[in-house]
Amino acid sequence: MATSKRRGSSASTSRLGSGGELHQSSSAPETRITTNHGVPISDNQNSLKGGQRGPTLLEDFVLREKIQHFDHERIPERIVHARGSAAHGFFELTDSLADVTRAKVLTEVGAKTEVFVRFSTVAGGAGSVDTPRDVRGFAVKFYTKEGNWDLVGNNIPVFFIQDAIKFPDLIHAVKMEADRGYPQAASAHDTFWDFIGLMPESTHMIMWAMSDRAIPRSLRMIEGFGVNTFRLLNEEDEPTFVKFHWRPKLGTQSTCWDEAVKIAGADPDYHRRDLHEAIAAGNFPEWEFGVQLLSQAEADALPFDILDATKLIPEEMVPIRMIGRMVLDRNPDNFFAETEQAAFLPTNMPPGIDVSEDPLLQGRLFSYQDTQLSRLGTVNFHQIPINRAKGCPFQNLQRDGHMQTQVFKGRANYEPNSLAEAGEIGGPRADPDGGFRSAGIPLGESKVRLRSESFADHYSHARLFYRSQTEIEQAHLASAIVFELSKVTLDHVRNRVLANLGNVDADLAKRVAAGLNVELPPPSKPAVAPEDMELSRALRIVGKYPETLKGRAVGILVTDGADGAIVEAVRKAVEAEGGAVKIVAPKIGGVTLKNGKKLKADGQLAGTPSVIFDAVALVLSKEGCAKLLKEGAAIEFAMDAFGHLKAIGFVADAKPLLDKAGVAADPGVVDLARNAADFLAAARTRQWDREPAVRMLA
Length: 698
Ligand code: HDD
Prior knowledge:
The chain is of the alpha/beta class. It is built from 20 helices and 18 strands. β3 and β4 form a beta hairpin. CIS-heme D hydroxychlorin gamma-spirolactone binds next to β2, β3, β4 and α10.
């Protein structure tokens, strides 16, 4: 058998697969490939056969092991929040909460705590796109000195439902419809809106989900909220209610709906790529961390129940105290080992943090651990490196189970014990002073299966949110509902939602009905008549984010013969302010500039549409522009940039393309030769004033 005697790259063709010249071999123990059990493998290209052209032999354990391992590579995706992207970083406390908690992570000013953060969409599967209209998960695992603290939140401060018993119904309704397996990652369908219409408590969350918050520009530009009300406990175990907030340094920014839809095609990994590239480039995303604190008496004085997760506490009522910052500065090394296997548990809380009786949170306290068992397949999932408590010692007397990786010594696997091998005190023991304790809250009367009367107002907060928005945001919100309800095929489902909207705001209901061109039914009868609350400007996005090029991307479309000096001037100015520049050319090899120099392209025009940029510049030569007039991708590049309210810089020779794309003159469309500074100023934000000229909004 000549083949089995030959070695490595000098093997005969019978040992080589296609591309065989690249197959390398090694005889050094530290670099040679082995089976899972360490047996060195002599040939990783060919299975063992009965003769050169004969069948594969069952005895080929090298082949069987490799294929079998591959067959089992997947684990069940998360039932919700399956699509996610993550990063490592740190949390630094800047202001101590020692007056209200004994949790060291919230009392040791200046201390840095390692974190792992996973962002996600909710409805879509693991392979779905990054930009559907959806809530974003914002899950932070703090590896504190006193055990892991998982703050498993969202980018929206409220939730659809009040009681965990409705969670499976909500998720069934929003996911792909049961009989047909679509739509993927979309709430615009019958079953979702059927559930929403029948569950008026969801109306406040619907306002948020239909707002621009649900189509974020970047994961670096979303807020985060703990959503549920938690408690902090001080040294004396005195409780204080707390709501947790993350505020992005880059501000909360969104896309336009049409843009989000097109990004889904242009770059399904838009958010994942953006996060990864920013961190790889050293542009570390950062958030401020804040708390709203309130005593039982302050909570009792509010006109709503803070145990109801469909309500928020307006900042104007209880200000947010900023106490720290979080920076994400390291990409995961391995997506599966870290991002996929990360198991977040709302039950992970260090001493000094505690739950409230919020019935949504109470259900979560069971669900996450349970989910991890079926996803990760073992009670020992806490031993997987990404889940391991690493800020502190970890020891107890739990033993064995699937995939046990610890090798415990001796006989002492129970407590109390007095075996010498377990040390002087007989192994780890409870710590009444330093250990986790629950708030001594007096509990209510008899067992009941009821919704508290204090949860019955389903519309006041929805009204507060809608009316607090800017005009632009109200129009987007109304248009989003029109879009979604236009995909609903059942009249009675649509009408029920319209009737509920009448309780939020008569004008909103009217706009949506007009947008659908259907008759507006009278408002439904609310359980409790909604109240007008003091409006909260803090609930807006537009006008709040910093106008800056930092964290933003500018695409420069070039052709052969383009003026390189202008390209370089734009690039320099954008990069100086912390923005990124990408060169887009008709061909990936790039272009030859006017001065004869070559300019490499970062993206080819057809695969790099303007939707992935925050602003664009068209630096074309006359001839180059003439050619692009016949290229749909070029026309769309300009047309979409205009339609998506982006700054457009241009040189005079690019004017015919702008004209063909229907780009009209406005302050965001700037001649670079005349006033490059105006282009930069416009590129720092969106051209909201342009919107009425390009879109029919509800
Ligand atoms: Fe949940 C995952 C956020 C209510 C049951 N949830 C999950 C994740 C986030 C949230 C961000 C993904 C974590 C990760 O990246 O791995 N969930 C929330 C928020 C809620 C909420 C902010 C409302 C306050 N969740 C909620 C309820 C239940 C669940 C009421 C069930 C009773 N959630 C789960 C789960 C998941 C989960 C099924 C799926 C995968 C996982 O836990 O790890 O257990």
